[in-house]
From TrEMBL:
PANTHER family (alphabetical): BLR3078 PROTEIN, QUORUM-QUENCHING LACTONASE YTNP-RELATED-RELATED
Domain Metallo-beta-lactamase residues, every copy: 54-272
InterPro entries listed in its UniProt record: MBL_superfamily_lactonases, Metallo-B-lactamas, RibonucZ/Hydroxyglut_hydro
Signal sequence residues: 1-21
Organism: Pseudomonas knackmussii (strain DSM 6978 / CCUG 54928 / LMG 23759 / B13)
Domain of life: Bacteria
Protein name in UniProt: Metallo-beta-lactamase domain-containing protein
Keywords of the record: Hydrolase, Metal-binding, Signal, Zinc
Length: 288
């Protein structure tokens, strides 16, 4: 076969393949929420302005797999909270009615193939027990942290010996503001990046749709979108309670802040910011 024919055959073959991100879609699944004061969530916030905070998961359908990024609060959330949250911290971390991901997906025919954790904090991992057979992907550092951290950060009742941990490492491939990344399906549509600080193995997830729109789920590095402008840390007392390393957390805030200056087209969604999530809508509403 002549080279030109070979190239033609290759290009025809390639063009007949679907783009890997074809049909990629995601939905924010709101599992619970609470109203609190702006000042408790971000430095220099208002002591009179009320803000809504969500507990959520991100449901992602890629043609290769269906994933959850975090689980939000699961069907055992009340019992886990009763058992593991110290009484003096209970008022700080109370939450409203729970609508677990498992229940919201019932009857949909959607089956979860893997769960990715932004980090192992109780309000992100609570729903793991509703998906006992599903592999749980997290960096080695976060799996270690899940085994040694204690309430109010991590609840032992949410993990068991049968938790199907799937540890992973990042590759030294830069992605936007980050020096390392993990391209989950090799097509650039779902890319994890390390964000150590809030916890040792915290991660963020970029979702890039077929139309080029890019979303960044930034976990708990900031609870509020406005933490990335400034940048502004959490309220100092909240940060002392929940951020494992405050200096590293601030460095991650600054990194995302710089990235947004260079790439204002990226939509950032902190894990608890209800205003940011309202704009995407909630399952069964899909973003695609
Ligand atoms: Zn957290």
């Amino acid at each position: 076969m002549r080279l030109s024919h070979l190239l033609l055959a290759l290009s025809l073959g390639l063009s007949s393949l679907p783009a890997l991100a074809d049909g990629l879609r995601f939905a924010v699944v709101r599992t619970s929420g609470v109203t609190t004061l702006d000042a408790l969530t971000v430095a220099d916030g208002s002591w009179t302005e009320k803000v809504r905070m969500n507990h959520m998961a991100v449901l992602i359908q890629h043609h290769a797999a269906t994933l959850l990024f975090d689980t939000g609060l699961g069907s055992q959330a009340e019992a886990q909270f009763r058992q593991d949250m110290p009484w003096w911290d209970k008022p700080l971390f109370r939450f409203g009615q729970v609508s677990p991901v498992r229940d919201q997906l019932a009857g949909s025919g959607i089956r979860i193939d893997r769960i990715l954790l932004s980090h192992a904090h109780w309000d992100h991992a609570s729903g793991l027990s509703d998906f006992p057979d599903v592999p749980v992907w997290a960096p080695y550092a976060e799996i270690d942290y899940a085994h040694i951290a204690t309430p109010p950060a991590v609840f032992p009742s949410e993990f068991s010996a049968s938790t199907r941990w799937h540890p992973y490492a990042f590759s030294p491939t830069p992605f936007l503001a980050f020096d390392e990344s993990l391209d989950l399906f090799g097509d650039g549509s779902l890319v994890l990046v390390p964000m150590p600080g809030h916890t040792p193995g915290s991660v963020g997830l970029f979702i890039t749709l077929e139309n080029g729109r890019r979303y960044f789920f930034s976990g708990d590095t900031s609870w509020r979108l406005k933490g990335f402008s400034g940048p502004r840390q959490k309220f100092w007392a909240s940060s002392r309670l929940v951020d494992q390393n405050r200096e590293q957390t601030l460095a991650q805030l600054a990194k995302v802040h710089e990235m947004l200056i260079a790439h204002p087209e990226i939509t950032v969604i902190p894990a608890h910011d209800a205003d940011a999530q309202d704009r995407l809508g909630y399952y069964p509403q899909w973003v695609q």
